[in-house]
């Protein structure tokens, strides 16, 4: 059975935040879904919309989803939010990009409408804005804690000079200190670098048990063969990664065999990916699970009609495709992630994700 098509994307009316007051509730609760359905990120946005429609079909809730195109720009995102709130949206899911979230946040706050954004920009969390994106800080803490439990005490970092790299390095420094370990070497490189030889040479030399490489995708695949070539030997130090390593293609990199990274347990996502492929005849983008989980959460809350901050921050949390998660008062999401080990035939779980928040901690 194929899920019904979603509602048409509505216009982006330019109502100002000061005039917005959601109409009195009548009929199904309305939930805005702000995604870049056109522009450079249009393919990703459409993939996330398809996942959202699948979630709505699965849960069979009475909520009405209001998709709006942000076009990948702050101006269009703010107009989309204003239009959706004017149409009665009581919860906003999205937007995707940090600049869009920054533009929408004051509009949502002025209308007292909570927002579940897909960004990882922690400076935007709070005041009714909750971030569902995967947290590099939590992933680093998780994989470093596991490495420490295996006797590794001295750490190094190889990271881009970007906000993401800065967060990863700080998280590594904090995690090492909290566990009685040491961060003995940090090497950063420009985001636009094409020759990774020089930074890898700087990272070589030993003196540490494990090195965190805060990179992913094509750049990590370019770096991998250069690591042992320039003296960062995987037979002598353990390679550690974040959720950026949640990429099946990395199994083809022999230099990364046995490396550890922290990410959601893949089992439930594999089932979701197969269903998505069967229904839409194309693989889902990696962030599709975030859209699915966000709409599922909204649909569950829609049964009681309670979209308050208190309901969203239920300490019991929620179970999603990407594992258990709960929203905290500061606007961040606490997630249970596993530690996985890279192998040519696919990653294996070496430390399972926690099954409840008691074992996850505060």
Q: SSE order, as H and E?
A: EHEHEHEEHEHEHEHHEEHHHEEEEEH
User: Which whole number gives the mean pLDDT?
Assistant: 90
Compute the separation of the termini in Å: 41 Å
Overall number of strands? 15
Per CATH, the class of the largest domain reads Alpha Beta
The structure class reads alpha/beta
CATH topology of the largest domain: Rossmann fold
Question: What is the CATH architecture annotation of the largest domain?
Answer: 3-Layer(aba) Sandwich
What is the 3D shape? elongated
- At the fourth level of CATH, the homologous superfamily of the largest domain is Response regulator
Q: In words, what does this structure look like?
A:
With 362 residues, the chain is α/β, with parallel strands linked by helices. It has two domains: 17-134 and 268-331, Response regulator (Rossmann fold); 136-263 and 337-360, 3-Layer(aba) Sandwich (Rossmann fold). Helices cover 36% and strands 19% of the residues. The strands form three sheets. The chain has a seven-stranded mixed sheet, with helices on both faces. The protein is elongated, with a radius of gyration of 21 Å.
């Amino acid at each position: 059975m194929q899920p019904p098509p979603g509602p048409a994307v509505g216009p982006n009316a330019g109502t100002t935040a000061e005039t917005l007051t959601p109409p009195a509730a009548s009929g199904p609760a309305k939930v805005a879904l702000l995604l870049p359905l056109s522009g450079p990120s249009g393919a990703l946005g459409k993939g996330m919309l398809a996942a959202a429609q699948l979630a709505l079909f699965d849960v069979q809730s009475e909520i009405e989803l209001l998709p709006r195109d942000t076009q990948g720009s702050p101006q269009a995102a703010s107009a989309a939010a204003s239009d959706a709130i004017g149409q009665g949206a009581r919860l906003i899911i999205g937007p995707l990009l940090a600049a869009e979230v920054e533009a929408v946040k004051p509009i949502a706050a002025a209308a007292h409408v909570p927002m579940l954004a897909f960004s990882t920009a922690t400076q935007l969390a709070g005041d009714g804005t909750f971030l569902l994106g995967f947290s590099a800080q939590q992933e680093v803490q998780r994989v470093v804690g596991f490495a420490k439990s295996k006797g590794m005490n001295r750490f190094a970092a190889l990271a881009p000079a970007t906000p993401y790299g800065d967060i990863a390095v700080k998280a590594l420094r904090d995690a090492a200190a909290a566990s009685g370990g040491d961060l003995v070497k940090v090497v950063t490189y420009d985001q636009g670098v094409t020759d990774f030889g020089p930074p890898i040479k700087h990272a070589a030399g030993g003196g540490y048990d494990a090195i965190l490489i805060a990179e992913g995708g094509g750049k990590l695949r370019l770096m991998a063969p250069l690591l042992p070539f320039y003296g960062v030997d995987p037979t002598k130090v353990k390679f550690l990664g974040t959720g950026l390593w949640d990429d099946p293609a990395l199994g083809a990199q022999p230099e990364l065999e046995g490396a550890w990274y922290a990410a959601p347990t893949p089992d439930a996502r594999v089932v979701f990916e197969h269903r998505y492929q069967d229904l839409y005849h194309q693989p889902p983008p990696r962030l599709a699970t975030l859209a699915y989980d966000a709409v599922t959460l909204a649909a569950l809350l829609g049964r009681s009609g309670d979209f308050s901050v208190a309901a969203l921050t239920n300490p019991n949390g929620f179970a999603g495709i990407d594992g258990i998660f709960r929203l905290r008062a500061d606007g961040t999401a606490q997630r249970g992630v596993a530690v996985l080990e890279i192998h040519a035939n696919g990653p294996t779980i070496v430390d399972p994700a926690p099954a409840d928040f008691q074992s996850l901690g505060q």
